[in-house]
Amino acid sequence: MDADGANALVATKLTAPTLPPQLIDRPRLTAVLDAAVADSSVRAILVSAPAGSGKSTLVAGWQSTRDDCAWLQADPADRDPARFWGHLVGALAGLVPDIVETVGPAVSSAAGDAGPLLERLANVLASGERVTLVIDDYHLVVSPAIDDAIDALIGLAPSTFRLVLVTRLDPSIRLSRLRVRSQLVEVRADELSFAATEAQLLLRDADPAVTLDHAEALCERTEGWAAGLVLAGLSLRGSDDHDAFVEAFQGDDRLVVDYLTDEYLSQVDEADQSRMMRTAVLDRMCGPLIDAVCGTNDGARWLNETAATNQLLISLDRTNTWFRYHHLLGDVLRLDAEQSSIDLTDAHRQAARWHHQAGDAHNAVEHYLAANELTAAADLIYDEATDLMNRGQLSTVADQVARLGTLAEEHAGALVVQGWIALFTGHYAESHRCVARARTLNPNNDEAALSVALAIMTNLATGNVDNALSEARSADEPFESTQAMALAGARVWAGDFDGARPFLEQAERMAPDEGHRYVQVVAPIFSAIGHIECNDAAAAHAEAARAIDLADLGLGDLTQTALAHSILARTTEHPDEAVAAATHGVELVSRSPEPILRAYVFASGGDVLSHHGHDQGADLIEEARRIIDECPDPGIAGRYLARVEARHQLSTPQPASPGFVEDLTDRELAVLRYLPSPMSQREIANELYVSLNTVKTHCKAVYRKLGTGDRKAAVQAARDHGLL
């Protein structure tokens, strides 16, 4: 599939299903929807009923008459918050000006905290005209986090916004509260049931000879269930005796499914049955995809001819390119294949290869997994994980990795992916474990390099600059931007800004071509830290501003941008801007579990706010000290905090010296080399075969000669002087 075809597949999520040729007008229900939209007190409309009740057809027909209504077709993959909110923003883009630019930057962080996204969304909706959003098949979005966020959106959104949820199951939002406040309008199965006059119109499309009596009888047997009536109409075409047909037709779900299998599918020739059962593995299908799965060459023609006589094959676009089976028919076809002992593994395998070649990694992985082609799935998950994680779709990647089963622990690439997910979600022990395990599996060069990058970032995230620097110094030349960024980051936090610069330049050259937005934002942030620590305020300000501009294109709420805001606060000449930037940086970083990041931003925020007379400044500096004291090796963050504390007279100033007070002896140097480690002084003494008092004496001499007052400061000072 070419790029246009890939886009069309995505576009089907933002387009209402094509309406049946003979759409039955149901004014009693569309009037309910119209009144709900017009009522300023209503916030949400819930259309909730079992499968086949005609929910989507009703709402799609109503939506087609309005120019203020957007559509989002949900699917199981939308349980990933970043994916769901990205599509929701895309659905509204045609009706709400600037929504992509305003809300889009918050989408990638929605998995961790949807608050910033909801605030932006509510604000942009409040500034526009009346708009209604339909989310169809919402029951497929199985995510408590999304349910909570939807609940919050209903409360935050302005009175000009209506949310229509079309679902088989009631969502886990506070419906009772909405009912009490008269903010909810509900359309349920009873209201959706077809009346006899409506059923007659529906059935006459199958056979004009259907009488009102026939319709009444079928309505009674199907309880007005739309799919049952449609199925009855399909089989009615082949009946010579309408009275006998109506008498024999039964209406509960199980019997209708059985009837569909026995009567409808039995009228389909064997070749078409086989094709339908093989293609039932597809969520969406087009002609070339059907040809790939079935080994045919007429897929597009077959789809259009079948859709012309079968309302259970639904067109998904106005060009009649993409289709799907009615959910019930798809279920029956898959059940029929299972009962017929037809192995659909090859259908999944061919679908996987087609989607893979078409660039649709998500569906390719899904079909590889279904086909038990686990190694191919794992390889593709690894290849595509960076892009998905850059867009915040951690849940999607984590779910796919989990479905690899035991292979997830035997595939180096899958372990690296699991490690990055653990890092991004704050599970650092798991991240360390994944690195260690991956390194035992003979990873290829790419996997090994990303393992090093992961090890570096995990050590930085746990406040251990020394371990991160050791990993960076042992690494090979990077051939991917994430690696280059990590190698630079270790050196920046260790104070080796000259050593970091070449890797930052590499990262910035590579990232745009690789599509690594995260790296494009973080690399100039590291550069800004280097400049400000070297007292080049103008260059630091420029790099921080550039990072924020890049982040605003899609990663505006990335916690690492807190560093950029804190640097802007320290380098601007305008007091109000300084306070605002410092405050925003603190707010952003408060969601991060990374100690060095938090300590540096808190120290910066405390520095700026204290300078401008804000009481909160001292509290932030105190919190930064608490964090630094818990870090194994905080690198330059500890040194910067000491300067801030001294500047605001919150600590006893330590002597600072650009050089040594005295040269260190060989024994002192030997002790110094152990200071970055977690070893106690007693353990160092045992390692060097000397007494504990001897080590204590050497440590005091090292601190004095380096102009520092404690172990962590001495480690950083030794790095600054090239001793470590």
State the gist of this model.
With 724 residues, the chain is mainly alpha-helical.
CATH topology of the largest domain: Serine Threonine Protein Phosphatase 5, Tetratricopeptide repeat
Record the strand order, biggest sheet. 2-3-4-1-5
How many structural domains are formed by the residues? 5
Biggest β-sheet strands, sense, barrel: 5 strands, parallel
What global shape is seen?
elongated
Question: How confident is the prediction overall: mean pLDDT?
Answer: 86
**Compute the gyration radius: what is it?**
32 Å
Total beta strands: 7
Question: What is the count of helical runs?
Answer: 39
Broad CATH class of the largest domain = Mainly Alpha
Helix content: 55-70%
Provide structural commentary.
With 724 residues, this protein is mainly α. The protein has five domains: 3-192, Rossmann fold, CATH 3.40.50.300; 196-266, no CATH class; 268-342; 456-647, Serine Threonine Protein Phosphatase 5, Tetratricopeptide repeat, CATH 1.25.40.10; 666-720, Winged helix-like DNA-binding domain superfamily/Winged helix DNA-binding domain (Arc Repressor Mutant, subunit A, Orthogonal Bundle). It has a five-stranded parallel sheet, sandwiched between helices. The chain has a two-stranded antiparallel sheet with strand order 6-7. The relative contact order is 0.06. Residues 1-9 have low confidence and may be disordered.
